Amino acid sequence: MLRQAMLALSKSRRAERLVTTSPLTADVVDRYVADDVARVVGALTGEGLLVSVDHLGEEVTDEAAAGQAVAHYLALLDLLPAGADVSVKLTALGLRLSQRLALEHAGAICAAAAQRDLTVTLDAEEHDTIAGLHAVHAALRREHPDVGVVVQSYLPDSLDRCEKLGGARVRLCKGAYTAPGAYTRPADIDRSYVRCLKVLMSGTGYPMVATHDPRLIRIAATLAELAGRDATGFEYQMLYGVRPDEQRRLAGLGARVRVYVPYGSDWYPYLMRRLAERPRNLTFFLRSLLSR
Ligand code: FAD
Q1: Deepest in the core among 2, 172, 257, 292, taking most CB within 10 A?
Q2: Is 212 helix (H, G, I), strand (E, B) or coil?
Q3: Does ligand 1 lie within 6 Å of residue 124's CB atom?
Q4: Which residue positions in the chain have pLDDT lower than 70?
Q5: Which 3 state secondary structure label does DSSP give 267?
Q6: Atom 13 of ligand 1 has which residue's CA nearest to it?
Q7: Does residue 154 sit in helix, strand or coil?
Q8: In Å, how far are 12, 27, 42 from 289, measured between CA atoms?
Q9: What is the pLDDT of residue 144?
Q10: pLDDT value at position 286?
Q11: CA distance 193 to 186
């Protein structure tokens, strides 16, 4: 219930105005969103962590705004060290205007990234964008075979998706939105996650295990070992500000760990999704507001 309410608030313009104009939210935003992306990336990579950087923004409604999002990404690529990844939301590149436009824009980012030894991963968003996401991903892969894509295990067809994505870089996550017909019980989402993990680990692609869930992290490690993958054969991914000690612990054991680093002024929907994920996050948010 609380999660649904928070996700509904993430789309409310009124709530957005209220939250974003309050000086009291700064501490919470700083916890999840990089204030200075170059500094944060430098600090994380200096500690042996990998990064995937997201220029926050989604749902553009005109071509000019989509063009601006591309320009932001092209400028961002110049700041990143080799081996970094950028996470891209196709709705920010114009997917809701036209699939062709999103493909063109994502292709420009992939081409610029390849020149700098960087990779691109396409985030998964609302359920009505998933068909377009996979169509654009399939088209991009012809020229950019290392472009990654996200699969959300709360979608019942996620296993089928994973089976069709042979050879690809695939980030597996639980899913941060809502979708008709999606699994809602945590046990069902986790079971689906494990089924997908089995397919990805035993396949020919590169699995990216995006979760903070200790049980799923342990299962991923076991499945990787059973599939004969060494530490370079897959990676863990976690969000900036979430379980930083675990990120460092896994990296200290020799695992590849990539931190998803969001930055930019359009942080409101991202922050609300993070608060929706954990009631404790919400308590932290409210406490930091009340303690002022
Ligand atoms: P949860 O069910 O949220 O948590 C499971 C357990 O993990 C908890 O019980 C707790 O033990 C532990 N845990 C979680 N958070 C904390 C915390 N703050 N402190 C301590 N322990 C904690 N979603 C999309 O829909 N599309 C995307 O493209 C996408 N990209 C993502 C990229 C990355 C790198 C990551 C990590 C997530 C991404 N997500 C994306 C979000 C994802 O779908 C989930 O909403 C989010 O990761 C929360 O799920 P979880 O797997 O961490 O497990």
Answers
A1: 172
A2: coil
A3: yes
A4: 1, 22-24, 279, 281-292
A5: coil
A6: 212
A7: coil
A8: 20, 9, 30
A9: 98
A10: 66
A11: 10
Q: Which residue has the tokens 């430098």?
A: 42
Are 124 and 138 in contact by the 8 Å Cβ rule? The answer is no
Q: Which value, to the nearest 10 degrees, does the dihedral of the CA atoms of residues 175, 177, 178, 181 take?
A: -30
Residue of the nearest CA to atom 51 in ligand 1?
211
- Residue whose CB lies within 8 A of the most ligand 1 atoms, among 86, 125, 185, 213, for a mutation test: 213
pLDDT tens column, 119-130: 999 999 999 999
One-letter amino acid at 147 equals V
Q: Tell whether ligand 1 has an atom less than 6 A from the beta carbon of residue 10.
A: no
Tell me the Cα Rg of the chain.
Answer: 18
Q: Please, how many CA atoms are within 13 Å of residue 182, restricted to the half-sphere of its CB? A: 21
Q: Please give the helix or strand (H or E) that residue 249 lies within, else none.
A: helix 244-252
At 5 the pLDDT is: 76
Atom in ligand 1 nearest the alpha carbon of residue 150: 28
pLDDT computed for residue 65 by the predictor? 94
Calculate how far, in angstroms, residue 242's C-alpha sits from the geometric centre of ligand 1: 8
77-125: per-residue pLDDT in tens?
999 999 999 999 999 999 999 999 999 999 999 999 999 999 999 999 9
The one catalytic residue among 123, 190, 256, 266: 123
If you write DSSP's letter for every residue of 49-81 in order, what string do you get?
A: -EEEEEE------SHHHHHHHHHHHHHHHTTSP
The C-alpha angle with vertex 40 and arms to 36 and 43, in degrees rounded to 5, equals 145
Q: What ipTM was predicted for this assembly?
A: 0.98
pLDDT, position 290: 58
Ligand 1 centroid from CA 174, angstroms:
7
What is the per-residue pLDDT for 44? 98
Looking at this protein, which amino acid is placed at residue 9? Answer: L
Q: Does domain 2-9+34-286 have CATH number 3.40.50.10580?
A: no
233 DSSP 8-state letter: S
Q: Give the domain ranges of the chain.
A: 2-9+34-286
